[in-house]
Amino acid sequence: EDDEDDDEEWLESLGVDERELRRIQSSHARKQQAAEMREDFSDNSLLLIDGVECQGLFSYLLNAKSAISTVGRLAGVPPTLLAPVAFPKATMQHLVPRSKK
């Protein structure tokens, strides 16, 4: 965080306007997010949560508006967690594998 403050001070000393500085930071954040999400929404996207953290993740996903799609065939469908054993507030269902590939 101190390095970021130093970078901002350095840019301001060069005469970079505060609006331009915010635009640069916003652009950098978008590029960094895009790089982190490169594999998301593909067959290579997987998240493994082990132990008691599973309930916390489930609660977060149910409350995060960005985790539930608003368009497409899964619109309004909450995230699905697959677990070999039940965890608190979970429902157990047998899966029927299907593929269109």
Describe the protein.
- The protein has 101 residues and is an all-alpha fold.
- Helices cover 42% and strands 0% of the residues.
- The chain has helices spanning 2-13, 18-36, 53-63.
- The longest helix has 19 residues, at 18-36.
- It is elongated, with a radius of gyration of 21 Å.
- The termini are far apart.
- The relative contact order is 0.07.
Task: Set out the fold topology.
Blueprint (H helix, E strand, L loop, with lengths): L1 H12 L4 H19 L16 H11 L38
Number of extended strands: 0
| Largest β-sheet summary | none
**Helical content class:** 40-55%
Task: Report the oligomer.
Answer: single chain
Radius of gyration equals 21 Å
Low-confidence stretches: none
**What is the distance, rounded to the nearest whole angstrom, between the alpha carbons of the first and last residues?**
47 Å
Structural class, by secondary structure, is mainly alpha
Query: Overall 3D geometry?
Result: elongated
Succession of helices and strands = HHH
Q: Give the number of helices.
A: 3
Strand-residue fraction?
under 5%
Question: What average pLDDT do the residues reach?
Answer: 76
